[in-house]
Fold these 4 entries.
Entry 1:
Amino acid sequence: MSDIIFHHFAVSPFSEKIRLIFGFKQLNWKSVTVPTIMPKPDVTALTGGYRRTPLLQIGADVYCDTSLIAEVLEKRVPSPSLYPAAISGLARNLAQWADSTLFWTVIPYAFQPAAIPSLFGNISAEEMQAFSADRTAMRGNAPRTSLGEAKGQLSEYLRRLENMLSGDTPFLLGAQASIADFSVYQALWLIRLAPAISTIFDTYPKLLKWMDLVAAFGHHQSETLSSTDALDIAKNAQGFDIEGRKFFDSHGIPLGEQVVIMPTDYALDPVAGELVIASDNELAVRRQDERAGTVVVHFPRVGFQMKRVK
């Protein structure tokens, strides 16, 4: 089987979600560290423009968004499952809430001035300004939440999560960990990295115990790989992960058409290519790049939009 190549950076919450899933499933992986801000020439060579972190690469297949990455890892190693049968639908819905509503509530709380040294180390004022400008550009016209609103809403969410853990089971939805645990954890993890603001957890002992339990899965085993080597692997790979999906037409666009795919919420960078997958939960395009060769870039249906190239 081809190696799992993970493109990420250290303080990326969504990257931490997948790193812990590697630990949960005991998967070996190769680690490519990407820049925290644009430009990201090696990333865009693989994706054609998609700039969010993280990415999963297997040969010449590039998987975007952690909801799809988790599905790919589940297919690779089905047990232990991220989607236990009895709670699969509930786990997916809770994960989607955590990856969107909870995450965007945490961000303004986590990026308080007091937390910055813990998150970024000795970052200069110029570097922090560049990071802030990059994230502002990513979000575009998306609504902003004030610190006061974020703290109030976050406190309510923490109370609800503490309540979910009030029984005898160790994880949010029962005795087994699920995708919901990793998705909720990834947002809260960012706060816990910064002692100056992590006191918000002090009145939620069950939540703290649960966070320790999820963190204990660890990241398993990884090897460092350069982004140049990752591009070479894509360029020299044989075959693509495009078989076995039933065609689901919701756009009136057949396979083989030239399309663009991009997120629906922020970082609206379109990726153009030939449509090769349109299944019930996945879209993918095949595209050419001088450095990466022929690659297939995969996206989940939920959270993304597709249009025919005019």
Entry 2:
Amino acid sequence: MPALDVRPFRRADRDQLTDLVNTHVAAVVPGVSVSVNTVLSDLERQPEEFITDPWVSERVTLVAEQRGSVVAGAHLLRYRPGAEVGESYRDSGEINWFVCHPPASFRPDALDAAELLMRACLARLARWNVRRVHADGALPAPVVYGLPRNWPHIRAVYEAAGFRHVGDTEVILLARVADLPRSEPGGGVTFRRTVGECGTRFTACGDGRALGFIEIDTALARPERHIRADGLADIGNLHIDPAARDTGLERRLLAHAADWLRLCGVDRLAAYLGEEETERYGLLTGAGFDELTRTDRGWELRPA
């Protein structure tokens, strides 16, 4: 087989690297893909990560190439050691994402490429001499973060390199807006729509106080980045006053949000839950959501 070469990303690699990224995105969330411009922008800065991105001091993208083809890629971040950086990120290095072709009969060298690229990643992280090394799979696309269960080949590469899952697991759900319940008036509850922290907020009010709210983000795709995610939104926040639980209020809030999404032309809504949130899982699946995948967050290098 032709020799593999691991080297820094070049602009001429942009189309092939984007194809690799989109192959991994497509395995997680339907109907979403990213443009070349999106990938290039992500390599330079991540404005949606407004807390952690300013902490980054160095960014490096590496690719594995064989016979002119980019067969694997990884994006590395180095975080500053200053006191202004959060403790868990301070003076750390991260494999922000790692993509590669899975082993296949027509691509028997895929595993070699992934292993060679990972060795190069670890060598770069070692040269940075950071106190902690962690990893993620945060591709520049909505709903893709952590290490989704749909990428067993990436998990195998991480684990072989000594990374261990030390964080939590989240469940990602997706619903067709057409399948969500419709709002019904009455019940002594009124609803108001305002600007929220994570999107448009719908607040349920009764007895002169707020009983709960849901926030819906319909701006998952930044227009200048040309992400193909039209018709996709997500639940940014959902909170119910403990005294108003078991009253069906969550379902009514979801129905009001769904009415708004229909007016927006949004046809799919994503939701995120901790694996332990079984009660809310039942509520959402009963309202029309299906489990899309589970993703494991928080990977740390812990060699044997």
Entry 3:
Amino acid sequence: MADTRYALLDPLRFPLVARFYKTHYPAGKPKKDEIIWTAENNSGLFGSVRFRQFPDFQLLTGMLIAPEQRGKKQGEAFLNAVQTQIQTKTCYCLAYRYLENLYKEAGFEVIEVSNLPEELRGRYQSYCNSGKDLIPMGHNSMSQL
């Protein structure tokens, strides 16, 4: 991972991230109003983490690692690299249950659905009702945890 570079996305490079999602996770569509971080190595873009901003908090909307890079601790390294972003203001994520330990290692803790901001509770319920096995998490830098 020595050749890995993590950076806040330059808006001019947004099409690159959009193409990355279309290739590896068509259901996830990056949005220009999100804060997006990228992970690249000498072979090019292999990861993206997106943060949706709300007035009083942010939502880590998802992390995508290219399939050929999975299982190599890239997710852990990426979440570590974006800690400054995570800690800029209260941060939540709605994580797939099988990724709970990954997010816990990055400082997130499972929280009660009732502790999610109102704007996220409905989204969480909708995702779960559509069959996604998610857990609500908040970063432990939050004062209410």
Entry 4:
Amino acid sequence: MKNGVPVSEIMTKKLVTLKTTDDLVTAERLFKKHHIRHIPVVKGDVIKGMLSYTDLLRISFADAIDEHEEYVDTIVYNMFSIPQVMANDVVSVTSKTTIKEVAQLLATNEFHALPVVDDGKLVGIVTTTDLIKYLLKLYK
């Protein structure tokens, strides 16, 4: 196994982001459209928080309803703002942080994604899925 490989080798660089002024209906559309589970919340290119699809599920009770699911989601989502639902105390790494260090952070914490920030600017995101894909390539 390679030692010292930087996270920049596996991070997602083409980012889907939200602004704090966006709404949760927009967030859900982005999660579904891009088949992702974590979206950095930014002001300009500065990270302000992280919204996960799980965060949306926590406030939605639409899973218990069959008929008008989308309508119920919209009502519930309009009751909250992104800053109210997102994680504010975001841990980040730099693009030079090693994949091993990222794996240790993700393995010992309750979150599954880390924003990658260089010089105060969001440059990527790395998730547990990125780590698993990397490990699978090593075992080919």
